[in-house]
Amino acid sequence: MAVDQELAGPRTYGNWIRPRSPGLAGLGTLGTVILFVGAIVAIFCFMAGQFTAGLIVLAATAVLVGLGAWRDKHGMSVLERTAERTAWWRRRGAKHSAYRSGVVSRHPWGTCQLPGILAKTNLVETGDATKARFAIIEAPAQATYTVVLGCAPDGTQLVDSQDVDRMVAAWGQFLAVLTGEPGIAAVSVTVESVPDTGLKLRARIENEIAPGAAPFAADVMRQVAATRPLGASRLQAFVAITWNAATRKGGRKRAAAEMAKELASRVPALVTSLETTGAGVVHCCTAQELCEMVRVAYDPAVGTLMEEAAMTGQTPIIRWSDAGPVAATERWDSYQHDSGISTTWMMTGAPRGLVQSGVLAALLAPHPAIWRKRVTLLYRPIDPALAAVLVEADRRDAEFAATATVRPSARDLTRVTAARATATEEAGGAGLVNFGLLATATWRPGDEPRDVVAAMDTLSAMSRIQLRPCYGMQQTAFAVGLPLGMQLEKFLSVSAEIGVRL
């Protein structure tokens, strides 16, 4: 058996496809339509004797097609980058890039409410079938309800490769089950590295020292507690599961009380299933835990104060209406919020080829140049009925792109192979999900931002993924990166379906 495993080698993963629409020379559906319409209009102009008008139409068509066809390494065209910059100028001109709250603000409520897309969210707390309390985040703008699960991942150190493979398979099965779960809208996994103050370790050592212990041994343990936390970091993980208010498109939207009753019976089973994926001990986050987590995210300096209060048995009372920042300013490539400055990157390219299970280990691990780092994987389960249609459409689009030219590129041929394999796996019962990634790095106002950017570039290269700063939407990307169930596609001015076809 050992010989067979050695010959087989480590297990690899891959076969992901970036959705795109068919078109001539990589233009996409919209670009191809513009090309044909422009050519037809120009022909009619020439037939009518309007040669000048025909030339103008051809020139305009060529410019539009050229601006939409030329893309950078992140897949962004000139038109898309121009629209991105224009939207930012409009927001900045309308003074929507600055936020002030609290008792000194102009708002009549006098609280530190959450900014941006989180402003209209509500937080309610209920109990599950085991009488355990958990919080539900209601987002009326999205018509969704989110439950956040706190995890303590086991990690892969000193774990056999067979056990790692089983955990990865269990996570895949968990996502496959969610594709058939009625009303599931999205799932996100957030792993955050935060500086360790050492207060918990110090309290644990003080409690473990026996009254009659040797002075030398007690001094050694206290010295360990005083020096060990210097420069250390700890990881905390969350899984946010989001349900639609309506079980089907066009159906009746359920109220918060109705959803609380339904989720109380469904969440315990999901917690049990999640624990088999290597997530460790999983618990449902309460309203107090979510308020503290969000408050620390917007004002990292208060994290130490909250931990000190917890060590003394005190619980700081934080309401959802006071979890936001006092002052926040959004810039083109960064977001300043109270005691921290953050930049959020989005994944524009998944790892090419096949990867092993630890491909994201470098990106998730703490880094000495980054004060706080948060990596969020965004999943959108696809209904099994729709998945069959999508995989067949992807297969046809890939085959069309490969046969549209006499000499197809190696990337087009690889995409055909991946699309066919995905269709085969889906026909065999595998689930289908869309996924993305957001990475947020937070530093102190006195730190050097270039060191943070360089560190993130190195980590992304080690994880074989391509990252691009969320230019002009740092505030929104920061909120989506939090484990609160916010879906970025619900707030796009152009729908994601149309954007794919550009």
3D structure, described in words:
- 43% of the residues lie in helices and 18% in strands.
- Helix 2 runs antiparallel to helix 3 (51-69), helix 6 packs antiparallel against helix 7 and helix 12 (384-403) packs antiparallel against helix 13 (410-427).
- The longest helix is centred in the N-terminal third of the chain and has 20 residues, at 28-47.
- It is α+β, with helices and mostly antiparallel strands.
- Strands 1, 2, 3, 4, 5, 6, 7, 8, 9, 10, 11, 12 and 13 form a 13-stranded antiparallel β-sheet that branches.
- Residues 1-7 and 495-502 have low confidence and may be disordered.
- A hairpin with a 2-residue loop joins strand 9 (335-337) and strand 10 (340-349).
What distinguishing features does this structure have?
disordered N terminus, 43% helix, disordered C terminus, 502 residues
Say how many strands there are: 13
Radius of gyration: 26 Å
The outline comes out as globular
Helical amount: 40-55%
Element pattern in H and E? HHHHEEEEHEHHEHEHHEEEHEHHEHEHH
Mean of all residue-level pLDDT scores:
82
Number of helices, counting only DSSP H or I runs of 4 residues or more? 16
Main sheet? 13 strands, antiparallel
Strand-residue proportion? 15-25%
Low-confidence stretches: 1-7, 495-502
Coarse structural class? alpha+beta
Spatial gap, N to C terminus? 51 Å
Task: Give the helices and strands, then pairings.
Layout: H1 2-8, H2 28-47, H3 51-69, H4 78-93, E1 98-100, E2 122-127, E3 133-139, E4 144-151, H5 161-179, E5 184-195, H6 199-208, H7 215-227, E6 233-244, H8 256-274, E7 283-284, H9 287-298, H10 302-311, E8 327-330, E9 335-337, E10 340-349, H11 361-364, E11 372-381, H12 384-403, H13 410-427, E12 433-443, H14 449-462, E13 466-469, H15 474-481, H16 496-500
Antiparallel strand pairs: 1-8, 2-3, 3-4, 4-6, 4-7, 5-6, 5-11, 8-9, 9-10, 10-12, 10-13, 11-12
Helix pairs in contact: 2-3, 6-7, 12-13
